Structures are given as C-alpha cells and as structure tokens.
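Q: Hi! First time doing this. I have a protein sequence and I read that you can turn it into a structure. Is that right? Here it is:
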Amino acid sequence: MIGGRMGVRGDLRLAIVLGLLLFGVRTTIAVEQQGQATKSAPAAAAPNAASSSALLAWKKQVYTQIAAQSRDYPPSEFAKNEGGIVNLTFSLDRQGRIIDSRIAHSSGFATLDKDALDKLRRAQPFPSPPTEIAVPVRLSLPVRYHPPAVAAWETQVFGKLRENFHYPAVAKANGDHGTVDLMFSVGPQGRLAATRIVRSSGSTTLDKDALDLFRRTQPFPPSPPSGGAQTDIPFRVIYQPCPLLGSLLRQCKE
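A: Yes, that's right. Below is the predicted 3D structure, encoded as structure tokens:
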C-alpha cells in the first residue's frame, strides 16, 4: 500500500504535517510539541501531558480551519502558472482572534503572499486556546501553492511510484510492517535529486526499501517547464499485509 502526501506523528517530539491538495493549493501545516516530565517528578507528569495534549488538539483545529480556506487559487497567479511557499507567523488572543500576523518568508510573488494573509484572516475566529495555555499564542504556518501543472506532474510521479511498489518478501516473512514518511526532490530532467526519511517505520528493511523505491522508479516525468526543480515533496509508503479478499479484488498491491 502506498500513499502520496503525508501526515507525520511522533510521541515525544511531535511533529504534525498536514498536507492538503485542494484545487491546486496545498497547505502544509507544521506543529512541534516539546517537553516531557522527568522520571524524578512523576507527580507533574499527568498535568503536563494533559496540557500538551490539549494544546496539540487545539492547534490541529486552528490549522484545519485555515486549510479549509485554501480552496481558491489566486486568479492572476493561476494564469501565470506560478507557485511557491508563504511562511506565516501569527498570534491569537484568548477569544481566538488574530492579534498580529506577518509573512516570515515570502513566496517571491506578492499576489501569493497577500492571498495567504487573506486566507488566514478569513479563517478567524478560531477556537479559544485551552485555559491553561498563556496568551497570546504564537503560531507558524507554511502555505504552499501548487500551480495546476505542478499538481498534475506530481500525480504522474506518485502514479509511477505506486507502479514500482512491492512488499519485500523478507519483510513479509519476518512479519515487518509499518509506515515510512519521506521527503524527496526531483530535478528539471526528472532525475532524483535527493530523498530522505522524515519518520522511520522502525524496520531497517522497510526503510531501505522505501528509499530504493525512489531510486528504481526514476527517471520521473520531467517537471513542468515553469516549475523548475521540485523540492521537499512529502510522500508516505505504507507496508501492510494485504487481506486475501483485497488481493483477489486487486484492491491492494503487495
């Protein structure tokens, strides 16, 4: 089983990346949770864990609400077939209202930068932050705009990766299963520029196979002329034994 854009979850240092491909616009959301009570202070562990869990759940609500606004590509940029990433930072008050917002890093296109800020403002009011969290709360949000040509190219790339996917026989024999989250880059000529594991499956065999999947799949379709090199593309490979019925119906590939 194999997937395209990915969401990554950890336990101690939790990074959540929500990838949404909505009408040519992908909003990628990254949240990082840090901190763990030490073994010498067991009494404080429960409230800290509860606070962290509440904060994480609230942040997911905020980012999902913003992503719901990302359905329309700016008309002028749509025509130019331009795209990029706008990194936003913003602060919310106790009522979930934006106190301030700014562009931490521009996409290089004024229309995209303005559109990202407009989407952020339209998404408010947000859910109120947990009462135990101090306000204002400062958050960051990278918004990635995918031109239609690039989105179509990625669909081709993901399709070719699916065609080349197989479940390693040695992994199945050992009962290995899990998910590998990766980032990869492709050059203008369709050659693999780089690939790296963002989150391991916990199995060396599966991690190695996921990396090999990209190497044996290249060359990829050449990226759109206006797209140049495509970098930091998230991809998820899921290794899970296929049920007998699913195999017979060809609903999954091993």
